Amino acid sequence: MDNKNTPKSRYEINAEILKFLRGEVEKVNFEELVDDLLGIPPGALLPEILIKEMPRPFNFVDELAGSAREKDILFLGLISALGALFHEVTGEYRGRKYHCNLNLIVLAPPAMGKGALKIALALFKRLDEESLVAYKKAKNGFVAGEVPKVPLPKTYYIPGDASGAALKKKLKINDGTGFMLETEIDTVTQAMGQDWGGFSDILRATFEHEDISKLRMNDEDPEIISNPRFGTALSGTPGQMKGLVKSILDGLFSRLLFYHVFETPKWQRWEKLSNQQSFEDMKKRLRDEGYDLSKQVDARKIDFEHTEIMECVNFVGEKLTEEYTLVNKVFAGNVFRSMVMVIKVAMIFHVLRILSKGEELDSRELLRDVVLAMYIVGLGLVNARYEARELAPATIVDYRDVYLEKLPAKFQTVEAVQIGKKMQIPTRTIHLRLQEAVKQGKLIKVAKGIYQKPE
Asked: Could you give the strand order of the β-sheet that contains 410-412, starting from the edge strand earlier in sequence?
């Protein structure tokens, strides 16, 4: 993607929806929400409200990350890590119980801030250290030569440099929980080698918490990992993606939350931090924050079955399905699972708000968290569509460009609607595309209802 198409500022949420998210109005307009989500360009920066106005531990984003891209990457890394940390939290969607774990994938050129992802591991550091110290202390209590009968330690962090068999063994020890974070996708794909298919199976199964089983020739009984809640956060350059997902038909593709960076790296000025605390001191605070959060969170269930929340998810899901299946019918799976991701992210936000305020919150507050989550997942969908064109260019057609090509040099809105209907494009989507084309300079609005193509 050309640098001229890279964002100059954060994506601006519709003003009325922003009022709803800040609690200034009681209702959200679902049609405006869909239009806003469809207007997100690939490679966009996250909206300002997510970076500046979210409860702890997201306050660390401004303190620990420098550029706007680094802030986004750390923010998404924290969401993914919290999804693994809150492994006892559940929510029901379409009659199924879901946990908060996610599969994040960040694709960016070298030197574009992917390393900020690793900072999120600080959330687990104190917890893992405590678990390892307790294990070593118990192990040291045995006399020399005696086989220690001490359960192996449960630790959240699972390195990406592990075979599929080793990963399954660790998940069995962890009762299905854990978090893998790597800033080079190749580390994971090379370590898995011929086991890669098994690893892909694990990611697909854990997204929906389906049992993982293993049976080898010498095993008497299959080894089963029940209710897995394993989360991942991987980053790499765009060229590494094909080592992770071979095809858009791979079920893993629709279970990934994509974040794309397209711009060329630029020099970041070296300036003294306004906060007098050192970087390591702030990471220590984040480590303690993760420890405290883990002790405060209980096995709670978030109730999404409120009329307005269900209406919102149904309306947005239906309209996004109409939009994305125009590109390729395979994208129906991406939209369906994106709504699961919305529920997962909303659970994380809602638990943090409850802990921050020290009280239970009503369904209106939960709807706000659902809408906020839609902007993260909506960006992920747009980026997935872009990535699909890289993986399968012959099967992915951007109907927006095809539609614009079919329009005459100068035309009225009624003509544009007639042409769009022949392409089976919904009327409201046609109006949205015309607005988008004007913003991008692909069309000029001469007068009300009259457009022309630039010469």
From this structure: 410-412, 450-452, 444-447
Q: How far apart are CA 7 and CA 423, in angstroms?
A: 30
Q: CB atoms < 10 A from the CB of 215, how many? A: 11
Report pLDDT digits (tens) over 143-187. 566 666 778 889 999 998 887 788 888 999 999 999 999 998 888
Amino acid at 324: Y
Residue 182, H or E segment: strand 179-182
Average pLDDT, rounded, for the chain: 87
Highest mean pLDDT among 111-125, 194-208, 337-351: 337-351
Give the predicted TM-score (pTM) of the model: 0.87
Type of residue found at 22: R
CA distances from 275 to 55, 62, 64, 65, 127 (A): 19, 10, 10, 12, 26
Question: What is the structure's pLDDT at 199?
Answer: 78
The full set of domains in the chain, from first to last, is 399-452 (1.10.10)
How would residue 367 be classed by pLDDT, with cut points 50, 70 and 90? Answer: very high
HSE-CB of 229 using CA atoms within 13 angstroms: 22
Tokens of 7: 């964002």
Question: Can you give the pLDDT at residue 147?
Answer: 61
Residues 6+ apart with CB under 8 A from 192: 163, 164, 198, 199
Interatomic CA distance for residues 315 and 374, integer angstroms: 12
290 and 129 Cβ atoms separated by less than 8 Å: no
> What's the DSSP call for residue 200?
H
CB contact at 8 A, 116 and 65: yes
Q: Which residue has the higher pLDDT, 248 or 411?
A: 411
- In whole angstroms, give the CA distance from residue 144 to residue 146: 6
| % of the chain residues with pLDDT over 70 | 90
User: Rounded to 5 degrees, what angle do the CA atoms 218, 219, 223 make?
Assistant: 150
What's the mean pLDDT in 63-80? 92
- Degrees to nearest 5, angle at CA 217 with 213 and 223: 25
Cα 118 to Cα 131: distance, rounded to the nearest angstrom = 20
Bridge partners of 317? Answer: none
Listing DSSP states for 112-138 in one string gives SSGGGGGGGGHHHHHHHHHHHHHHHHH
